[in-house]
Amino acid sequence: MRIFDPHIHMTSRTTDDYEAMYAAGVRAVVEPAFWLGQPRTSPASFLDYFDALIGWEPFRAAQYGIAHHCTIALNPKEANDPRCLPVLDELPRYLVKDRVVAVGEIGYDSMTPAEDTAVATQLQLAADHGLPALVHTPHRDKLAGLRRTLDVVRESALPMDRVLIDHLNETTVKEAKDSGCWLGFSVYPDTKMDEERMVAILRAHGTEKVLVNSAADWGRSDPLKTRKVGDLMLAEGFTEDDVDLVLWRNPVAFYGLSGRLDLDVAATDATHEGNSILRGGE
Amino acid sequence: MTHPQDPTGTPAAGTALVPVDELHTVLTAHLPPAARAWLDQALDEAAAHPGIHGPISVWELRLAEAGRRCGAGHADAARVLILHAARADLDALTRVYRQGTADERRAVLHALPHLVPGPDAVPLVEDALRTNDTRLLAAAAGPYAARHLAPHPWRHAVLKCLFTGVPVDSVADLARRSRGDAELARMLGDYAAERTAAGRPVPEDLHRVLTLTGTVPETAPEPETAPHGPVDPHGKES
Ligand SMILES: [Zn+2]
After folding, report:
1. What part of A 49-108 touches B (C-beta under 8 Å)?
2. In-domain check, residue B1
3. With bands split at pLDDT 50, 70 and 90, how would you rate the model's confidence at B13?
């Protein structure tokens, strides 16, 4: 089973996770820029974070045979802090880089006017840079959030089929699918979505344009959720080809819209004693 | 998946040593037609508008997209050529390095011997040597470092290569710079003793460099020391 996790925050994960992911079949990931749990107070700390997403983290992933890409954006939560807003002016120079495969994750958190502006501005940046966009739906007031999200995307210069709407669930999947966007599901312990519900949604709504991710981060999460969904799909009668479509070909097709996917990774031996990650504390 | 891949690639390790026109000939011979046309245009643009313009110069845009245009295996060479065509000076190289991906930073390091005659770009090399990215370390230990890095940081660069598994073949001018370096020999000897004390093998490359120093440290390691052999950090008996 080959797996592409289209939404995972590897910066917050350990090398054990990379090893376990590789063993489970994960060969490619996309790491969306997001908030780090502790709010930032200046653009400078965003820049160091973005630099890690186009520098250290792809190197770390390659040590474990995994091709790493990222999406870059000012996240909705921190778009509400005026001290962070100047980072919007720095985004264009990141959006031209190799391996930056979308603008994201953008969207709504508390549905404020500041968030409206940040979403619209960044959808325009995506259109300007030939990139698709990863738009998440809010955790609170999700259905209203989805509708507002779809409205702002329709008003933008970005066609709906270049947008991935993420963190969908039973209540939001139908409207999202009808809009023509790509459909993302985050399978997360306790919240968002679990494997059984995910497979039920696939049965009810089909596999077309569906992407499944672990959204693993610094919170309680599981980077192997993608594999667990694949296993359950097979156990419940889906074919190998269905699994490959959802866990590999759909994410490749969506992020491939950027023209910047590079799935060849020169895997180096992770257990090599000279490995510079293992010796990080030299 | 969406850009040209040539499994052979343009040899990156040689990028800093090969003269620029030769690099150009080798690269264009390897590139598929579309990538070659893109590169020709990128080089023409860079030559027509060299130096820094505004928040991002046109040639900096080309530098950013070189990987997906030419394929990862040729990106280092393409970027060195673009930097050269843009006549990037220290300010331009510093900006590209600071704002660059790991791949762009590596290209800047490869370009230094072509573009910076004096030691002014040493801070960029030192920055790269502080990372743990083995691709950056290997590029930082190139001919520019051989020419301009002071003895202390140069010795630490060699040691860091041994620590992180970067082959010492990446260290330019290794034989000349290590010859007669008793301090380097001491550091290598201490490192070997530390490895032996921990029951871990001594990297083969360490013995190579030690031989090149031509001096025998007080803690000279035995080349054939078994990982779990007798531990004697001061052992000189044969
Ligand atoms: Zn996320």
Report:
1. 54-56, 58-59, 92-93, 96-99
2. yes
3. very low
pLDDT at A193 over 70: yes
Is B128 inside a domain boundary? no
**CA neighbours closer than 13 Å in the CB half-sphere of residue A123:** 27
Query: What is the C-alpha separation between A81 and A70, in angstroms, rounded?
Result: 23
Pairing of strands A182-186, A210-213: parallel
Report domain extents, chain A: 3-276
SS3 A82: coil
What single-letter DSSP state applies at residue A90?
G
Sheet holding A163-166, edge to edge: A3-5, A26-32, A67-72, A100-107, A133-136, A163-166, A182-186, A210-213
pLDDT (0 to 100) of residue B10: 59
B230 in a domain, yes or no?
yes
Q: How much is the mean pLDDT over chain A?
A: 93
Please report the DSSP string for A234-248 in residue order. HHTT--HHHHHIIII
> Is the ipTM above a cut-off of 0.95?
no
B232 torsion bin: left (phi>0), alpha (psi -120 to 50), beta (else): beta
B101, A276: Cβ pair inside 8 Å? Answer: no
Q: Which of B132, B159, B166, B169 to mutate to test the interface with A (most CBs of A within 10 A)?
A: B132
Kindly give the distance from the C-alpha atom of residue A8 to the centroid of ligand 1, in angstroms, as a whole number.
Answer: 6
Domains in chain B, number: 2
pTM of the full structure: 0.90
- Does B122 reside within a domain? no
Residue A192's closest CA among A160, A161, A162, A217?
Answer: A217
Between CA A254 and CA B187 the distance in angstroms is 52
* Token pair recorded at residue A142: 């999700």
Contact B142, B115 (CB under 8 A): no
Q: Within an 8 Å CB–CB cutoff, is residue B66 touching chain A?
A: yes
Are B160 and B109 in the same domain?
Answer: no
Q: Show the domain range for B229.
A: 136-238
Which range has the worst mean pLDDT, B13-17, B86-90, B95-99?
B13-17
Superfamily of domain A3-276: Metal-dependent hydrolases (3.20.20.140)
- pLDDT at B179 (0 to 100): 97
Q: Is A147 in contact with A178 (CB distance < 8 Å)?
A: no
Strand pairing partners for A72? Answer: A103
